[in-house]
Task: structure prediction
Amino acid sequence: MANYIIIKDKLSNFNKEIKVSADKSISIRSVLLASQAVGTSKISNLLESEDVINTLKTIKKLGINYSKIRDVYYIEGFGINGFSIKKNTLLNAGNSGTLARLILGLLVKSKSKVKLIGDKSLSKRDFSRVIKPLRLFGVNIESKKNLLPIKIEGTNFLRPIEYEENIGSAQVKTCIIFAALNTPGITKIHSKISRNHTELFLKFLKYPIKIVKKLEYEKISVQGLKQFNSFEYEVPGDISSASFFIVLTLLSKDSKIIIKKVNVNKSRTGIISILNMMGANIKLKNITIYNGEKIADIHVKSKKKLYAVNCPSKLNSSAIDEFLIIFLVASRAKGVSKFKELGEMNKKESKRLDLAIKFLKLIGVKVNRFKDNINIHGNPDLELSKKYEMKNFLKDHRIFFLCCITALTLGGKWKINDKDSINTSFPDFLKTLKVIGAKIN
Ligand code: S3P
Result:
């Protein structure tokens, strides 16, 4: 089957209620934490995307059984470090940076050497950010140039660490927390604010973890070697997936959407704050707290007049996966939008900052770049009519989604390659677009 799609028409007005796929970050964490619990955990609405399937395959290779009965995943854990690891175990994290970085934290006490590999995109990504703290715990790690493949061999002589996490990376923070679970004593992390699903999950499991929040940092202390029991968990919708539908609605004519039951944890809602600063008026309704996480329905209406934003960099971490689609809104807003310190975007599934600039120029948007800061010159009348073909973007799912939303809101005749990339995070993306009325071949 062809691995591309064609979009030739903009979307006409719609008024719909949709659900988006389950949260990827929480799905991966729920599976990994179930693998460390005592007993059988039950997880419903688990995201069935490639990153999560690779997580399930990974725990299976480490001796943890799971089954699926009527949409519920049953995962049988044997407690912390309850893996049974065969000699020469090879783990493949595929495209998932989250899985690759998090699983290393759970292997710090492995009895045999484990080799970790990934796909072409993951093999280009830097692992020094986790290798450095893990070595301080006393773990033996082999890697050339801090890239995959990585060989890790655990030790019985782990020591707790005090670590400053200055990137604002939840993957690094979680890797350290996971290593701390296996380590006697108290591990302390002074961490730049980033998504906090791991901490909330551990609190829900009544694990002894303490968090003291400051303005831009938090101090986290984790007591090691405490067991926790199996759990039941229903994964909420993913705001990163919802973000494409938020922008689709905002930039379409006379349309409305309600996106049901999305995780709106403050460490993830940077996109809503930024778009509202631009005049979007996105509302959260039916707010509930579920096992520590905030869930809501997101209500969005089209907006003709949007204004440029001077985006505060303190929102960067809470919108890190959403800047691609935020840039599209900036392209249609009145004035020059400014975004700063976005170097982390180039450390994702592809070099997203470089690619975003290339993409914006392709569709005729004026962009200035100074190091990791960019200015986007918006044009409220921006319409596309030419032919565009997107290829060679390292199969980055979020670049694919961006192209689709651009085609459906700004026009033009589009051929978008690497359709399969949607399976990384949102396998129902194209189906959901069709429900709203998109014509996609
Ligand atoms: C993730 C954290 C973010 C994000 C990624 C998922 C997570 O990465 O970009 O898609 O689940 O912890 P960093 O922690 O490296 O910023």
Observations:
- The chain has a mean pLDDT of 97.
- The longest helix spans residues 397-410.
- Residues 25, 98, 169-171, 174, 194-195, 320-321, 344, 348 surround shikimate-3-phosphate (CB under 6 Å).
- The first strand starts at residue 4 and ends at 7.
